[in-house]
């Protein structure tokens, strides 16, 4: 049992249990670092205030991380195919938002503003912004999005601040693994070289490994259950400190144990004594480190606090070294140093003896030399640090490459924009007065040199919306008011002119014109009655003609048996010709009546035109007084409807012209027939009679068609008259339908039949024997020149009808324009012009009717001549015999056509009553117009007075408009007009709603401005710009409706700026606390006040010098001219906490030798010689351990390793100079000679 206790077996068992428990209870280190290891900034910092606002933003933006997908084609523009593939990728992500935990996304396809922000100017790169939930780990999310975003033919990157931070964590974790392996191998090799034994290195690694495993488990459980500070650097610095310091302490312990064994002590006694002597030093030294790292718990910055984990590791390390090491020493004894058999005691350092000896001999010179060597590095020291996380990462990482692609093709700040938040407690910011302030802030920031773009609720695309600024709005107003002023002047002039013209006008003449128009219409109605009588006669003549033609056919058939039958047929033909002559005379008299009616209409239109011309200018002004003009507009509309639409007459006139042409052709055929039928005089008279009858019937058909069209127009006028009764409109519609059916079913087929009959009569020209008789008949028909004259008259009538149609269109326009006050004058002018056209057209109609009447008289004369030639036909009966065969065939065909003609004439007669009814409707409308005009005449005086009052009012208004326009023009040109103004309708419109949703919180109490800086987001310029922006915004809000609102800036730059401020201030604070704590420990250890000051001064000098050299080495060999922002802190902590060990080693040995009564200078030289070997070995191992950080690839770890290694080298060189020199100057002022140190030299 005694051996069990002496050999510390219980300690071994206890630590085995501890290790097993540590392994079993070890949490997931990587998960804890991911969850708790991020930099924590105090909640009062602006970036954290901004985060708080964002987390309460609504719209699903709380607990959201931003991810950017980068699509790039290098330095070449994206092709159409690549764009299609990119769009397909974006659509795929959009469809599977839930699967990838995407809350929202913004792409270039969304809108023009997004396209301007997300597509580079060189068209080589396109971005996709994703807002993703934080409920899933960033590493898993990044991998999923990267896989989904991969696009064929396009370089695709997934980046973002969280992804870059996770990459940094991964790099750190991988660096820790490399460091542990490299450190273990290095320590093993160095210890083998120092102790010349493979056993000692293994024991040292085991003890340190146990301490590392146990302490790491303790720290991670404290993190998991008690919220212990943690960062990505906690574990890695625990590794290097525990392996480095633990190995140093082991060297001290094993070296003392070896020295005691060399004195002949047993393994147990040597263990006990070595633990007492070396353990005392280890405990004091470890305590100072423990105090230094524990002091970091008082830091406010999470990164600095996270180093407290090293203190836990040191505490466990001390426990392991002072309990587990004795087991191995007592159990193995000298076997620990196998195969070494030489135990002559501890080694000595000649370097430290030389430096310390010369330092005490020439203390001032030694101090001066150290100062001179350090001075250049101290003078070149600067505190410009690199806060760019990207610098920590390898250039081969895709996320870093994507970030650089964004910076190369967009503004450097595009990848990490800043977000400015303005938050109020109870004000809803979606109001015009608040939006105006927000826009003012937006424009203020856009004017800053370091700002690339600013987007806000008022400028969602990052540029002004000109329509929402008073200057643009005032420009529209002033232009409109200028036009109004001019228009008022024009209206006023028109009103005065109208007033004067109304005073001089005679509306009675217009009423007289309407009376004449009514009279003319009555005559036209009488003419239609006569037309009906004429059509009856025409039908009777057509029937007689049909009988004569039948007789002719029979006679032609009988002529073969004798001339008597021919004579009878000729007599019958003579009777038919007489009847035809009578019908032609009747038609001529009726066309004269028609011409008279047309003349009456023409006169009435002329008088109406004269009356309207007298009041045209007056009516031009009446439009400005809409109430007074209401009745006049109604009457003008009624007049337009009375005119009707005469477009259908054109077709009928064209048909008439065609029939006259056929008549001319028939004359040619008759002449040809005369030449072929010489000697058949009686037959010639018959043919001429038929020819004349056909022409007369055709002319009647044309006239009937014209009357039919007029009847349709009149009926349409009634149907379109708003004042007409429903029954009248229905009757008018029936008239229209009946007339149109008559035209298409009867008149048109009649014309076609007549054309066919003419052709067939012309085919009888082979009867050459009838030439002489046919010549006399042909001479009685209208000549071609007369026919052409009639056709010319028809053409004129067509032009007249075109003018009537144009006039009707003008009338419709006049009705529409009557409601437009500023344009009545021009419309009345148009009415006057169109009335003149109507007068011209009616004149043409009267002229054409007269010419048509003359043609009818000519046809009647020709028919009389045909009748007198009937006797001649009888005398030529004998000569007819030679052509009776052909005549019989033609007569039969002609008989059939005559029957058809008789039927058509009867139908025409039946349709005339409908025409008469239509004219009666027209007459009623004219009477209504007369009554309306009588009412207008009575209102003229009242209107004249109203125009005078209106003119006076317009003068007043015009002056006011001119004054306001002058003021508004001046205002528009002033700086005051350069203000945002949004109308309420626009504010709540669908167009503006997306901007409100994007840039305002759900409760509208907060708004955000997205700021893209022109600098690298992590640069010092960017941080300074963010601070300046916050101050400017706060200043801009003072004295406004948003005075006192919370202003905070979020984003990478703001976070870095806060980190810079907090890290800088907390660094100084923490360093002072650490130095005070270590200084107090040193006072307790050295029992002196000055000695701790010498030690701390030496450490601080080594720190600043090492940092300056590290900066130079980093720039020369690593390409990074600045130190990372956390390098100075960690270098300080490591150098001060670890470097104090060597000073404590030295001072403890110095106190040990002081018991011999020697001079202080001699004691410090002896202590330096003895402890120097231990320090050099320890520094070598500690430096090598930190060198293991370099392969990690993390810039901070590399620079910290460089600073510690360089600092250790400096400490190893200046501790034996400065401390002995200071000891000599303080405690031993007597002169020291070389003889005083001979004992140590030997």
TrEMBL record:
Protein name (record): Transport protein
A single cellular component GO annotation: plasma membrane
UniProt-annotated location(s): Cell membrane
Keyword Transmembrane annotated: yes
Database matches in InterPro entries: MMPL_dom, Mycobact_MmpL, Serralysin-like_metalloprot_C, xxxLxxG_rpt
Membrane topology summary: Multi-pass membrane protein
Classification lineage: Bacteria, Bacillati, Bacillota, Bacilli, Lactobacillales
UniProt-listed PANTHER family: MEMBRANE PROTEIN MJ1562-RELATED (PTHR33406), MEMBRANE PROTEIN YDGH-RELATED (PTHR33406:SF6)
Membrane transport protein MMPL domain span: 43-364, 933-1229
Superkingdom of this protein's organism: Bacteria
Keyword Transmembrane listed: yes
Secretion signal span: none
Positions in coiled-coil regions: 622-649
Residue ranges crossing the lipid bilayer per the database entry: 232-252, 282-301, 307-328, 359-379, 1067-1086, 1093-1113, 1125-1148, 1169-1190, 1196-1223
Family, per entry: Belongs to the resistance-nodulation-cell division (RND) (TC 2.A.6) family. MmpL subfamily.
Broad class of where this protein is predominantly found: membrane
Keywords: Cell membrane, Coiled coil, Membrane, Transmembrane, Transmembrane helix
């Amino acid at each position: 049992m005694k051996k069990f206790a002496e050999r510390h077996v219980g300690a071994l068992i206890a630590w085995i249990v501890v290790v097993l428990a540590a392994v079993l209870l070890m949490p997931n280190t990587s998960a804890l670092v991911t969850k708790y290891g991020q930099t924590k900034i105090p909640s009062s910092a602006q970036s954290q205030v901004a985060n708080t606002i964002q987390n309460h933003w609504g719209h699903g933006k709380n607990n959201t991380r931003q991810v950017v997908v980068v699509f790039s084609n290098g330095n070449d523009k994206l092709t159409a195919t690549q764009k299609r593939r990119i769009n397909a990728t974006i659509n795929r992500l959009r469809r599977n938002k839930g699967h990838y935990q995407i809350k929202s996304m913004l792409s270039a396809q969304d809108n023009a503003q997004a396209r301007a922000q997300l597509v580079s100017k060189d068209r080589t790169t396109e971005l996709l912004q994703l807002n993703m939930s934080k409920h899933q780990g960033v590493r898993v999310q990044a991998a999923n999005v990267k896989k989904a975003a991969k696009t064929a033919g396009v370089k695709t990157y997934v980046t973002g601040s969280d992804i870059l931070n996770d990459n940094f964590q991964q790099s750190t974790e991988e660096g820790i693994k490399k460091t542990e392996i490299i450190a273990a191998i290095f320590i093993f090799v160095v210890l083998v070289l120092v102790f010349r034994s493979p056993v000692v290195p293994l024991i040292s690694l085991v003890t340190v490994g146990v301490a590392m495993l146990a302490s790491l488990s303790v720290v991670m459980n404290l993190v998991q259950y008690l919220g212990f500070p943690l960062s990505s650097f906690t574990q890695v610095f625990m590794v290097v400190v525990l392996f480095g310091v633990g190995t140093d302490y082991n060297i001290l312990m094993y070296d003392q144990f070896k020295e005691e064994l060399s004195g002949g002590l047993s393994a147990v006694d040597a263990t006990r004594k070595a633990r007492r002597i070396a353990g005392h030093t280890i405990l004091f030294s470890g305590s100072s480190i423990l105090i230094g790292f524990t002091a970091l718990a008082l830091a406010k910055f999470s990164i600095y606090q996270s180093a407290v984990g090293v203190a836990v590791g040191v505490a466990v390390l001390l426990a392991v070294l002072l309990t587990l090491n004795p087991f191995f020493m007592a159990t193995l004894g000298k076997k620990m140093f196998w195969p070494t058999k030489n135990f002559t005691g501890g080694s000595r350092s000649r370097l430290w003896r030389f430096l310390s000896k010369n330092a005490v001999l020439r203390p001032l010179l030694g101090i001066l030399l150290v100062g001179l060597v350090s001075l250049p590095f101290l003078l070149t020291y600067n505190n410009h640090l690199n806060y760019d996380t990207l610098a920590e990462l390898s250039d081969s990482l895709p996320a870093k490459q994507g970030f650089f692609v964004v910076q190369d093709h967009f503004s450097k700040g595009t990848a990490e924009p800043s977000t400015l938040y303005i938050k109020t407690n109870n004000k809803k910011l979606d109001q015009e007065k608040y939006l105006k302030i927000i826009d003012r802030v937006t424009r203020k920031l856009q004017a800053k040199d370091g700002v690339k773009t600013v987007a806000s609720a008022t400028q969602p695309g990052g540029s002004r919306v000109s329509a929402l600024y008073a200057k643009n709005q005032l420009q529209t107003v002033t232009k409109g008011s200028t036009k109004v002023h001019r228009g008022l002047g024009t209206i006023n002039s028109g009103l005065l002119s109208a007033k004067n013209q109304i005073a001089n006008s005679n509306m009675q003449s217009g009423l007289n014109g309407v009376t004449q128009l009514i009279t003319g219409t009555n005559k036209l109605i009488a003419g239609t009655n006569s037309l009906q009588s004429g059509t009856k006669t025409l039908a009777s003549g057509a029937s007689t003609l049909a009988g004569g033609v039948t007789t002719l056919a029979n006679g032609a058939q009988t002529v073969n048996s004798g001339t008597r039958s021919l004579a009878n047929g000729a007599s019958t033909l003579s009777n038919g010709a007489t009847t035809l002559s009578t019908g032609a005379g009747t038609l001529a008299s009726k066309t004269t009546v028609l011409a008279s009616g047309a003349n009456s209409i023409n006169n009435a239109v002329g008088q109406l035109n004269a009356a309207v011309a007298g009041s045209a200018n007056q009516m031009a002004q009446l439009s400005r007084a809409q109430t007074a003009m209401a009745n006049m507009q109604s009457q003008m509309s009624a007049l337009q409807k009375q005119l009707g639409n005469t477009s259908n007459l054109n077709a009928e006139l064209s048909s008439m012209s065609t029939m006259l042409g056929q008549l001319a052709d028939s004359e040619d055929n008759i002449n040809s027939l005369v030449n072929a039928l010489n000697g058949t005089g009686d037959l010639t008279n018959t043919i001429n009679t038929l020819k004349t009858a056909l022409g007369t019937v055709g002319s009647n058909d044309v006239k009937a068609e014209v009357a039919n069209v007029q009847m349709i127009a009149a009926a349409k006028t009634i149907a379109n008259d708003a004042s007409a009764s429903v029954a009248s409109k229905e009757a008018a519609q029936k008239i229209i339908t009946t007339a149109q059916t008559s035209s298409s079913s009867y008149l048109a087929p009649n014309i076609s039949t007549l054309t066919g009959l003419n052709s067939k009569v012309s085919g009888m020209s082979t009867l050459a024997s009838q030439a002489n008789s046919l010549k006399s008949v042909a001479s009685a028909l209208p000549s071609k020149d007369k026919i052409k004259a009639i056709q010319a008259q028809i053409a004129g009538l067509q032009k007249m009808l075109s003018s009537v149609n144009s006039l009707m269109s003008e009338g419709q326009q006049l009705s529409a324009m009557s409601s437009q006050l500023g344009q009545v004058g021009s419309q009345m002018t148009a009415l006057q012009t169109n009335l003149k056209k109507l007068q011209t057209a009616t004149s043409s109609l009267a002229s054409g009717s007269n010419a048509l009447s003359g043609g009818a008289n000519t046809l009647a004369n020709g028919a009389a001549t045909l009748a007198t030639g009937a006797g001649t036909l009888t005398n030529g009966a004998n000569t007819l015999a030679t052509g009776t065969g052909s005549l019989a065939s033609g007569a039969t065909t002609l008989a059939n056509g005559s029957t058809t003609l008789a039927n058509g004439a009867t139908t025409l007669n039946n349709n005339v009553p409908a025409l008469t009814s239509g004219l009666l409707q027209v007459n009623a409308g004219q009477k209504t117009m007369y009554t309306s005009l009588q009412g207008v005449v009575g209102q003229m005086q009242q209107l004249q007075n109203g125009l005078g009052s209106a003119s006076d009012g317009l003068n007043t208004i015009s002056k006011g408009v001119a004054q306001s326009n002058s003021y508004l023009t001046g205002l528009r040109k002033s700086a005051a007009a350069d203000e945002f103004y949004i109308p309420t309708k626009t504010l709540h419109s669908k167009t503006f709603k997306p901007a409100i949703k994007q840039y305002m919180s759900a409760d509208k109490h907060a708004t955000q401005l997205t700021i893209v800086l022109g600098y690298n987001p992590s640069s010092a310029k960017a941080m300074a710009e963010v601070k300046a922006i916050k101050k400017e915004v706060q200043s801009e809000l003072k004295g406004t409706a948003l005075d006192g609102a919370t202003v905070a800036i979020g984003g990478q730059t703001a976070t870095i700026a806060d980190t810079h401020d907090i890290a800088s201030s907390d660094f100084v604070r923490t360093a002072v606390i650490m130095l005070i704590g270590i200084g107090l420990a040193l006072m307790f250890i050295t029992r002196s006040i000055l000695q701790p000051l010498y030690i701390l001064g030496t450490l601080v000098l080594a720190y600043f010098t090492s940092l300056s050299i590290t900066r130079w080495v980093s720039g020369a060999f690593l390409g990074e001219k600045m130190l990372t922002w956390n390098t100075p802190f960690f270098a300080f902590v490591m150098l001060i906490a670890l470097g104090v060990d060597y000073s404590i080693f030295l001072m403890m040995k110095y106190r040990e030798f002081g018991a011999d009564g020697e001079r202080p200078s001699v004691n410090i030289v002896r202590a330096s010689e003895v402890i120097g070997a231990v320090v050099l070995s320890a520094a070598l191992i500690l430096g090598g351990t930190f060198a293991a950080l370099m392969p990690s690839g993390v810039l901070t770890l590399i620079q910290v390793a460089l600073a510690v290694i360089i600092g250790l080298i400096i400490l190893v060189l200046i501790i034996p100079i400065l401390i002995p020199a200071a000891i000599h100057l303080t405690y031993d002022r007597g002169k020291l000679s070389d003889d005083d140190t001979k004992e140590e030299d030997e």
